[in-house]
Each structure stands twice: as structure tokens, then as C-alpha cells.
Amino acid sequence: MVADLGALLDPAQTTRLVIKIGSALLVEGGAARRAWLTSFVEDIRAVRAKGIQIILVSSGAIALGASRLRLPHGGRASLADAQAAASVGQVALAQLWAEALSEHGLTAAQMLVTLGDLEDRRRYLNASATLDRLIERGAVPVVNENDSVATEEIRFGDNDRLAARVAQAANAQGVLLLSDVAGLYDRDPSEPDARLVPIIEGVTSEVLAMAGESSGSGLGSGGMRAKLLAAQIAERAGVKLGVIDGRGDHPLARLAETGVGTLFVPVRADSARKAWLGGRLAPEGALRVDGGCAAALAQGASLLAAGITRVEGEFQRGALVSLEGPDGARLGQGLVEYSASECRAIQGKREGEQEAQLGYAPRAAVVHRDHMVHE
Hints:
The protein is an alpha/beta fold. Helix content is about 40%, strand content about 20%. The chain has an eight-stranded mixed beta sheet, sandwiched between helices. Strands 12-11-13-14-15 form a five-stranded mixed beta sheet, sandwiched between helices.
């Protein structure tokens, strides 16, 4: 087990690290915080010199673009404003990183991704191969969501979860979220007796209850809850995740000295395919099951039609669907073997009854256990 956050910067434990930079760290008053950026890139160079490969996930495009277009509310008043701001800001953000890294002899490589790029298995593997090749050639990948084309319904929505997904794709051992908060507190950090929690082993419902709903700055789209959801995604791949306050200069050097922040230690490690499946964020429907079926799923069984009590949404075979217990509580998710209409036709029916409804011999399961992950 990693003893503290400083071990994320130990090459004996972390050879590839994804670092996410929040908007509030990079942009202030619509302009880049260049002095802070210079200090951070100096830290990156020092960490790379120790043998740790770095991938950056950088926010800031919308904030930079909104300033240039003079859009209200930081460019987030509407989807159209956010997309316009991102279109302008992505150019500015790429130039900012290219110049800052170049000053220290490093080459920046921009990667703009959408939710679909990491939800679709083939595109996910392609992104993984691209990251590997860039790092092999000594570049520093700078990843951001392509907000100029992302919609409200089909997007990551925050770069915390994107960073965790990138870590999965890149086979990284760690994720470090630089934020405008010091880490996870056991209650609202504005309360005088709030305590910073240094280590979390597994993100439980109790841990989720500690999180507030908004970021401290109002610039970003994340918040502590988004960071906890990112930790859940990272955990599936056995990836450690840290949250630190990145507002001061030289945040990585400060981390190495103090180890202050919150470290999320994984208590599980799924296979590569199941980690990808568990990290997918856009189910197309839901299958609710009865109590007996829920108990069987918890023991590792496949989902059979007889246990299904409700089908929600419209989807085709191969789609990602949520699995819900009798009370609607989420049990997990998986890839379904039937369309929504076929699921409705056979729900609650035993195998011998299904062929008459389908017009062909039924498959072994509605969701096979090999294509299913649990919460």
C-alpha cells in the first residue's frame, strides 16, 4: 500500500502519471497564470528527470475562449456559448502549453477527445496506442475534452473523470488532480472542525456523502463529488488517485515535501476490459431485477431474462445498460445481448418460454457475467 501522496512521485511505484489541472489554477480574470504555469512546468521537468512519464489533462479552454469572445458567465451561459468559447480557447490553450513546455525543452502534443472516443472499445484502444507512441517519442500529451462538439447529453462534463479514464487507457499507475481545494474533508471545509482525510481505501457511499456539490472557484465544472467519481473509475484499474491544492507555485515540489492532500488507494483491480467497461459513463438504458436475481448477480452470475422486472430506454444489442435492484439502486452495468424491445418481450420468462417470443433460440444470458461489472 502507498503510505502517502508523495509516493505518487516515486518512480519505484509510479512510472506513468496523469496530472489534471483545473481551470482556476491555469486561468484568472480570463488570462493565463503564466508565473504559476512556469513553476509547474519546472516541476514537470524535474519529475520526468526522475524517470516518471507525464500525461496532462488540462482544463481552461472555455475560460480562455470566453474572455476572448467576451461571453458572459465565463462562457457557460448556454451550450452554444460553451462550444464557441471552447473553439477559440482550445487554440489558446494548446499554444499556452506548447510555449511553456518548449521553454524547458519539452514537446507538447494536443489530444482532444469526446466521450465516445473512450466509450467505444476500438476508439479507446486507438487512443491508448496514440498515448503510448507520443510518450515513446518524448512528448508530453495534453488532453482535454473536445467541448466545441460535445453536447450536454454526451460528454464527460468534467476533466476529473476524463483524467481517470485517460489513466486507464494509458496504463498509468497514478492520477493527480490539482485543484483549488486541499483534498477531501470529512465535512464542509468551511466548518471550523472540518478535518482533511489523508487516505481513503475504496470510495463507499459514506465517502461520497462527505463531498459537496460545487467547486470552490466556480470556474470549473467539477467539484469534490466529480473527484470521488474519478477515484471510483481509477480504482477499477488498480490506479491510485490523489487530490491536492495546486494553487501555489511549484505544486509538485510542494507535494514531495509535505505529502498534504488526499490519496485514494484502490481496493480492487479489474481486468483491462472490465476496467474499461466499468469506467464507461453513458448507459443507454436500464434493466431492473427482482431480489433473487440481484442476489445471484452479487455472487457472480449472469443476468437471465427470468429475473428482469422492468426495461427502461431504447437500445440495441451490444449497448451499455445499467443494472438495478428491486428498489432501483444501481448494482452495476454491462453489455446487453438483446435490444430493448426483445428484453421487454422476454422479461420475467423462463428459457423455455423465450423462443416463442423471440422467434429464435434464446441466447445464454441477457447480460453475460464476462460483460458485466458491479458497483
